[in-house]
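User: Sequence recovery, please. Input:
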């Protein structure tokens, strides 16, 4: 069944604990953990749409990132099939392995991910300090002294799944991580994508609907998301490749990278007045917050929805996956389990 069952979830979390345990053994003894049961490559690569894996090449700048650019980059611009090539970068942290597992099994699963979309998880180096997103999942989480374990576990996870981009910077929420993400993508993935999105890991998305909004559009000067004043909310904010280039290369931006990343992103793109040529602004019900038990509670899903924010707990991901399944497969409906309580 496409929706992750409760039993399946427990099995998956058990597998993830193996990663953490193996990293702990390595950190304590220096002994390399045994290889995973499935075949893995020492260099993780992301597959082209159509499952054609490219040979690894050396990144243009030193980096511990597990992504390897393809040897034959695609040219930028509209494709023969009319589809843009899209990269979704999910901002997360090494310790949030459960949330990445939920995303892989729900909205980013092969059944739900269009063939012109890649999804990658963006992770910085663990510092031993829990980030706000960590504390939302485990309020009493203490990462003190566990940096080596989580960093090794993230690398092990990357080798298995090939969808983690490990940035060579300390994990942070408001100290330049998003800027470094765009800079790395521009320098190491030239010509591969028309649009690059930054998303939070507490979102549930309908990727085919995200893509549908861009059909037939020219990938030039696009700023996409939920607009607040002159910037897009950080839940899901996308820019076309020309704006990725601007963010990565403009000499003024490196001095403007500390603070709320969504607000800063808007400031970067307003440094030159003619950069943004197309505002793709979507409010409810297409993109919205989900406040469990609060004022937005009735507005959680509709045939138009493609991004819901504040999806904090496993039962929230599973709830939307169940609704998603029933919409895609009306001939095979399943029971829907609506969560109770708040998302925090």
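Assistant: Recovered sequence (344 residues):
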């Amino acid at each position: 069944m496409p929706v992750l069952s409760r039993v399946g979830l427990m099995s998956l979390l058990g597998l993830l604990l193996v990663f953490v345990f193996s990293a702990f053994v390595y950190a304590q003894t220096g002994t390399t953990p045994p290889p995973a049961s499935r075949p893995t490559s020492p260099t993780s690569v992301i597959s082209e749409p159509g499952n054609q894996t490219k040979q690894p090449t050396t990144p243009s700048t030193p980096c511990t990132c597990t992504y390897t650019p393809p040897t034959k980059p695609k040219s930028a611009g509209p494709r023969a099939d009319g589809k843009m090539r899209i990269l979704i970068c999910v901002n997360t942290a090494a310790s949030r392995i459960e949330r990445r597992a939920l995303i892989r099994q729900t909205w980013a699963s092969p059944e739900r991910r269009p063939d012109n979309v890649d999804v990658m998880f963006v992770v910085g180096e663990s510092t031993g300090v829990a980030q706000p997103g960590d504390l939302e999942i485990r309020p009493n989480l203490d990462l003190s002294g566990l940096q080596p374990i989580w960093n090794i576990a993230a690398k092990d996870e990357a080798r298995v799944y090939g969808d983690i981009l490990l940035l060579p910077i300390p994990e942070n929420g408001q100290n330049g991580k998003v800027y470094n993400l765009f800079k790395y993508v521009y320098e190491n993935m030239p010509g591969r994508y028309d649009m690059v999105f930054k998303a939070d890991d507490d979102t549930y998305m309908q990727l085919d609907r995200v893509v549908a909004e861009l059909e037939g559009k020219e990938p030039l000067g696009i700023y996409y998301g939920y607009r607040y004043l002159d910037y897009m909310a950080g839940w899901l904010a996308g820019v076309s490749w020309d704006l990725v280039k601007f963010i990565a290369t403009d000499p003024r931006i490196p001095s403007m990278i500390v603070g709320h990343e969504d607000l800063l992103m808007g400031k970067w793109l307003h440094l030159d007045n003619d950069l943004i040529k197309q505002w793709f602004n979507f409010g409810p019900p297409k993109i919205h917050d989900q406040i469990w038990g609060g004022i937005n509670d009735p507005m959680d899903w509709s045939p138009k929805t493609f991004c819901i924010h504040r999806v904090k707990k496993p039962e929230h991901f599973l709830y939307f996956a169940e609704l998603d399944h029933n919409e895609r497969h009306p001939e095979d409906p399943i029971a829907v389990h609506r969560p109770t309580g708040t998302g925090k």
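The domain at 84-328 is CATH 3.90.550.50 (Spore Coat Polysaccharide Biosynthesis Protein SpsA; Chain A).
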